Amino acid sequence: MFTAEGKYNVTITQVIFAEPKFETVPNAFDVCVEVQSKDDPAVKDWWRGEWSTKLGVGNVSDKMQWELTLSTLQRCGFQGEDLSTLPAQLVGKGTTATVKSSTSNGRTFYNVRYLGDSDFSPAAINPAEALRRASMIVGGAPQQAAPVQAAPAAAQVQSPFPTASGPAPF
To answer: What is the pTM of this model?
Structure first.
């Protein structure tokens, strides 16, 4: 079992099909993939992918759970759609596992949330880049920083972001 959040290099050690952990729609099942840390072979855990007609949520609300699971399996090296070949295709393959924590009843659990290189985490940009992009969206070309001068007491700087006094100008 993993004991910290992070992205780990893993080897797929087992693939099985199981009764669904959460979903109760007819004919649903889970595709379960056991992974083992390449750095510490004693560390193993399971990823579960739902195979059902239930729709995803959020950014993937236009896809069914089976489509999301298939996409994950394909990122791990699965080819085609014949699930009977899944264990033969994936066992022994290397991939990544993204582990996230959750807390329940005062206990912290670490679960394999994503397999493959895509974990849907945001790609961070630095604050200066965000400000540059915001000024391009709101007011055209970014302005170069002018030399700092003492501003008159009545002068105020216009922010491109919403404030309590009113909406942003976009």
So the answer is: 0.67
